[in-house]
Amino acid sequence: MPAVSRSDCTQTDVTESYSMLYDGAKFSGSLDSIEVAFNACRGIDNRNNDLYAYVGRLYQEGKISAKEWALLGQTIVENNNCEVAMNFHLATSHNFIVGYNHDKSKWARAVAKGAIQPPDEGQYGKEGFKASWNISGKNIMMRKCQDCALSHQTIFYKRKTPVPVDNPAIVPADLVQYALSDLLKILSNYRDGGNRSLPGHVYGTDFEIYSTLDDALAGTNEWKCTNYKYTSAFPGDCAPNGGTLTGQDAVMEYWWMGKRNAGWYFPSDITQPKLVASSDVGTNKPAGQTLEKSGKYYMTAIGGDIWGAQDNFHFFSSPMSGDVTISVKVTNLEFASSWTKAGLMIRSSLAPNASHFNVVLTGVHDVSQQRRMTDGATSSSNLCTGCSYNSNRKTAFLMITKRMRTFIAYESKDGVNWTQVGSVYNFDNMNQFYVGLVLASNYGDRYSEALFENYVVESYFYPSAAPSKVPAPVSVMPSLDVGLGTCTNCSGSTSVQGSKTTMKSRSGDVWGTSDQFQFYKPSAPFTQGIALTTNFDVTVHLINWNGAQGWSKAGIMVRDSTDAAAAYFFMMVPEAHNPMFQYRLTNGASAMGMNTDEWNTYQNDMWLKISKRGNVYSGFYRRPNFEVWNKMGEMTIAFANASGVGLQVGLAVASSSRGVESVAVFQDYKYTVV
User: Fold this and answer.
1) Lowest CB count within 10 Å: 58, 254, 302, 527, which one?
2) How many whole angstroms separate alpha carbon 440 and alpha carbon 446?
3) Which of 321, 521, 296 is closest to 435 using CA atoms?
4) Domains in the chain, ordered, with CATH?
5) Residue 529 predicted with pLDDT over 90
6) Alpha carbon of residue 600 to chain centroid
């Protein structure tokens, strides 16, 4: 495709002189003179000698159509648009997307812009990056720059000294927006008109630059930059030969500053926080993301606000019903706006205009409770009692309780003494809803990050306890005994206290063609199931297990229905052995099992996981001090959905000794749609 930014345009202006004679009988005429002048075309907006502007004038005068003018725009693309036009042509005409497809087994993308940043992938924030970078101890970062000079398209940053801790006292007052520990922000954005370096981030003393990964790892062929310029962002106008090459920086915070297609990457490691399923509500681009490790959630978001009649934010959520209490600690908030918002939400749907109830810590204006009472209505809010605008509060404990129609928000400074935020509100459209963590940047092109800890979702059977300053109440849950028949001493029970679920079973076994066990679904009643087309992961921590005999079983189950003969997939821990999985391929068939990888181990503390992808169900386990999941195996099961309500997913305990009690204590049950 030929493309130019502009084209000259010359018009011809002709002046002619004629003589006309009449002799009484006839006319005669002659061309006495002709003068041709070549002048600049006159276009719209006083833009002369410009073909695109001239054709625009023809359109304004009604001499050509808008489509004809637009066709010219495919060739004459105007200033600074050549690259965009070429990339658009490659994508639409040849299905060729310009960018950098990194090896995710070796590198993780921390931050990027332009063609390097996929619009459906998020970026790291300060805390998520600090928890992820340099786990392997290589001290390496890689910068990719598509539109840089060849020598600068791939370069490597290597730390010589540890990243410093924050110390505002030694940072110049006009540079305090750069925390010394925030390596990602400093690499991505730092420059200073006074050519000052930041303490702990001095070229040659604290870091080096290399052209290849091998050189960076070996410490050979380092760039010998003699005049690193902090007036520019990294790499400070340095060149590999020690000279100067300007215009090779890329400020990530602004798409227009420096090179426009660049990104930073760091070595990946299996122990880093993992990406979990979350979503953007509204039109945020690029996307937000949520990382999780050891109960800490690192969420980033860009774009709009939770306000007005439509919202734009990032949401880590789960579908639920019934009565719930959700609570979390907002440990840190890196905000882009004074009204950046991070906290908890209960929402009727994932539509941008959905009704909702939230409680959030804001950028500088303390804790606020917000709500939209019906779909499409205007939002309203209340500031917490005793709070003030511009308070610059850094952390907050937040909680929402839902009891039937009634919603109440709370905040706390210590997680023990709770204060109600706003009034009590009644919603009529919240029988089915989403609960989760939210982050709204409230800034169109700048990311915010929230670090959440102690996130707990508790399901209650009404009437349930109100928030209290005492430890979380013990609530008896609506669980189900499957297949007990006429046994009068085989009933089990389930209770919840805080994030712990205790299940007791006196049943027979999960085996053969008919099962007996105690069944509990943390997220929804048994009258509701999960669609057979939904892909998901479900995990839980079995923290204590006391079975009646060696083949007592406790774990996670996916089941066609609550019928005793239903098909199922069961990832569990027998009392006496390592984890294993069982399955029944069709309703009424005989059960089968995948043998454990170790016998007679008597495990008492184990993480379990089931992953569903299509009709394939995979079982995993890991010990608490390991990050890597061990895959036991997988099985293809075409569930029949005999009940018509979908799959039943939850926790199951079978005593395998009728009338003798087995007790399992679970924690951190988590169901995630993927």
Assistant:
1) 527
2) 11
3) 321
4) 10-94 (no CATH), 107-267 (no CATH), 286-460 (2.60.120.200), 475-673 (2.60.120.200)
5) no
6) 41
